[in-house]
Fold:
Amino acid sequence: MTDSAVSLDGVRVRNLARMLQLVHRDGPLSRASLTEATGLNRSTIADLVAELEGLRLVEQREPDRRGRVGRPSPLVAASGDTVAIAANPEIDALEISAVGLDRSLRLRERIVVSDVPTPDEVAALVARRISSWREDELVGCRVVGVGVAVPGLVRASDGLVRDAPHLRWRDVPLRDLVSDATGLPAVVGNDASLGTLAEHFYGAAAGIDDVVYLNGGASGIGGGLIIDGHHVGGAGGYAGEFGQNRPGIAAAADRRAGDGVLEDEVSRARLVAAVGRGDLDDRSLARAIATAGTPDILAEVDRQRRILSTALANAVNVLNPAIIVLGGFLATLADHDLAEFEQAVRSQSMSANAEALVIRPAALAADRLLIGAAELAFDALLSDPTRL
Structure:
């Protein structure tokens, strides 16, 4: 193949990728909108759409003609029959979902486990669920890969789980375990980093370039950063471990964990214990706190809010974000009185750093980590749609 042919083929692949990314991230778009967004001419757009249709990655739909004059161009939509499997192992459950390329959550399940799962058990659970879905709900669908969101340090280069302390995993080649068990390409990332990407693409931080995200789950507190529009992973991909910082606690009576780190003090387990019920998912815990009338529950919520507000003020002073997004039980804590919580953070921050600050719960709620994991699994396809 000549150099010019290779160059032209590279341009074609980049154009296909740009088209697929647009309809995946923005939703169905008319061919006229794609022409405007890409700067390509109409005949080139038509050819690219036809090629993506042939690859079963997009479909064309008739537009809504109500109130329109003339003949509108067809809508191009990402295919919901091309799916990624997203999984999030925790100490008490495995959450797993099938996410369409059109961003639809086709299936979602929470599998409760009786003990902290091993990496092999997680890989086997994911493989069994995929096999079952392929024989039923996903018949006729194409599964392109598996994305796993892990509450721990994940090496970006190869998906090695360096340390997931609450799962008791250390130096686990989880990507290879899942790929071997499922027969599918697998990718692994830190859960909070993937939640950051999901909220930045589609949620509370969409269109915002400077973001601090904190995620609170059964395994503790993680976080992620968007700086000047770019995700910041650090040298090894481990940036954002807010839960391991030493919290500033003004009142000695608020301290529960001696010399513990933030996630020892601001803790989902402590909230669940205060509520007095086990096996609560995030929605159930939020409802229990919202309807709480006992002083013990309210006191624990207020204690954790005070400590969390100080931790966030430190992040505001260092990073000067436009928005802080809170996911999991941290969103529940903030939402208990969001205006008061935001003021508590502002009052402990440098005024200039906090003057434009807003704090918001994760808009994608309980789906944020799964959507982020699916996005990771789709990444290779979105970069080169011809790889199929």
Observations:
- The two ends are 21 Å apart (CA to CA).
- The mean pLDDT is 93.
- Residues 272 and 285 are 7 Å apart (CA to CA).
- The first strand starts at residue 29 and ends at 30.
